[in-house]
Amino acid sequence: MSPRNIVSAAVKRGLDIIAVADHNSYENAYYTGVIAMKGGVNFLYGIEVQSIEEVHILAFFDSYEELRSFGSIIYDNLPDVSNNPDYFGDQVVVDEDDNIVKVEAKLLLNSTRLTLDEIVDLIKEYNGLAILSHVNAGYFSVISQLGFIPQNLSIDAVEVTCDISRSEINNVPGIGGRPIVTFSDAHYVGDIGRGYTVFFLKEVSVAEIKKALGNLEGRSYEVYGQKGRIL
Predict the structure, then answer these.
(1) For an engineered disulfide with 102, which of 25, 93, 153, 225 has Cβ 3.0 to 4.6 Å away?
(2) Which residues pair with 19 in a beta bridge?
(3) Which among 112, 111, 109, 170 is positioned nearest to 136, based on CA atoms?
């Protein structure tokens, strides 16, 4: 899952917008963005944050500067616990030439000290796109942790796992009325492109994607998983 391999797999699978959303970490997004733009692939700068309630939420930004400002706050709100590479593996930052340029010492898989509401507010403060991660999953989702999707949560969409079918979506509690998307959620190169959302946009930007999710001003979207079209 080096930046070079991620972009190469995305090109082979015909994806023209990708993002990297590492767990509580943002630095690999920079190098992947460099390669993506050189290869003609549109790139959003992402991170997947774990709230104090152990809920995962995706944040996407137009620029690395916005992601870095947001991600630095996330990093500062992680417990000061060192990684054990023998148990959890090395946490590395890899550049566009597949060189390891940094080994992160702080354990990244912990929950932050921030609540879900605080994280959503921060995403909005930095002009980002806020999407609840894999809401139908049995772990680290808003439903598995809280039992419901808070109606007053100012999110832009909810992500369902890419193995869900159109009929199964109706069984996800509280999902009605929310824009629904799916993505690869790829932890291995072979998983890239296994689920995707098609956005009909004038340009690739967070603002345009928000319009598409709301079916505003002629923008729209379609959702495809492993079992075919979802929405």
Answers:
(1) 93
(2) 44
(3) 170
pLDDT tens, 32-68?
A: 999 999 999 999 999 999 999 999 999 999 999 999 9
Structure tokens given for 211:
């319009």
Could you tell me the CATH number of the domain that includes residue 25?
A: 3.20.20
Give the count of beta carbons closer than 10 Å to the beta carbon of residue 96: 17
Per the structure, the complete domain to which residue 7 belongs is given by 3-229
- Here the tokens at position 187 are 């932890």
CA trace torsion 185, 189, 194, 195 (10° rounding): 30
What radius of gyration, in Å, describes the C-alpha atoms of the chain? 17
Q: How many separate domains does the chain show?
A: 1
For residue 213, what pLDDT band results from cuts at 50, 70 and 90? very high
Q: Which helix (H) or strand (E) holds 85?
A: helix 85-88
Q: Which amino acid makes up residue 121?
A: D
Question: Which residues is 20 bridged to in the sheet?
Answer: 45
The sign of the CA dihedral 77, 88, 105, 128 is negative
Strands (E), 56-173: 56-61, 92-94, 100-103, 129-132, 157-159
Question: Is residue 70 pLDDT above 90, yes or no?
Answer: yes
